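Format notes (please read before filing issues)

Several people have asked whether sequences and structure tokens are stored in separate files. They are not. Every record keeps both together, in the order shown below: the sequence lines, then the token lines. Line labels are part of the format and must not be stripped during preprocessing.
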Amino acid sequence: MNAKTEQQIANLKTQTIGVEIEMNHITRKNAAKLAADFFGTGRYKDTAHRNGYSTWSAWDAQNREW
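Then the structure lines:
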């Protein structure tokens, strides 16, 4: 593997991405709670003040926000 490819891979490993999930018949709050329970943290919060339009977030065990 050449140096350019190695650098591209290293850069990819530090990037973050946004994820949007379409759902029906479940509130954003309940979806965030479900995700937090799945992650095993139980940590979820209304983050609309920071992220916009009725956003709820859940955190995983590595403290990453989803």
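For reference, the curators noted about this record: The CA atoms of residues 20 and 34 lie 15 Å apart. Residues 22-66 form one domain.
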